[in-house]
Design a protein that fits this description.
The structure is a single chain. By secondary structure, this protein is α+β, with helices and mostly antiparallel strands. Helix content is 32%, strand content 40%. The protein is built from three helices and nine strands; from the N terminus they run βαβββαβββαββ. Strands 3, 4, 6, 8 and 9 form a five-stranded antiparallel β-sheet that branches. Strands 1-5-7-2 form a four-stranded mixed β-sheet, with helices on both faces. It is elongated and about 50 Å long.
Length: 139
């Protein structure tokens, strides 16, 4: 399941839907908004996306991950819009027969998402703002 939403992400709702009796592993990754970056205090983030293309790219990443690591279930939920400090912007839930597959899949998904999915992050500070991934803010 691939979701891009402006709504707050409820982890419990998605965990309950992701449990599979043939899985020995259900791993959860939450990307959250931290209050600092590059020595600056971060007030909040905003994510923008080309949603149709982002969903296509996420589906490609998900399909590859499911086949390569024999996942029983995979959910990728990314939030867009304004995200406050400590809120979840990315939730990935992977279930598999053994934990190793889920660990490896989640690591791959996060890396590929940051490289190729058209979702852009802007940090807001008390003294301005910066797009993440720009030359002045590569993180």
């Amino acid at each position: 399941m691939i979701v891009i939403t402006e709504n707050i992400i409820n982890i419990q709702e998605h965990i309950n839907e992701s449990n599979d009796s043939s899985s020995g592993s259900l791993l959860i990754f939450c990307g959250t908004t931290r209050d600092n970056n590059l020595g600056k205090s971060v007030d909040y983030l905003e994510y923008e996306s080309y949603i149709d293309m982002a969903k296509l790219k996420l589906k490609e990443i998900a399909d590859f991950s499911i086949s390569k690591w024999d996942l029983n279930n995979l959910k990728i939920i990314h939030r867009i819009g304004k995200i406050e400090i400590s809120e979840i912007s990315l939730l990935i839930i992977a279930s598999s027969p053994h934990r190793n597959e889920s660990f490896r899949a989640i690591e791959y998904i996060v890396s590929e998402l940051k490289k190729s999915v058209p979702i852009w992050k802007k940090e807001y500070y008390s003294d301005g703002e910066s797009w993440i991934g720009s030359p002045d803010n590569p993180n």
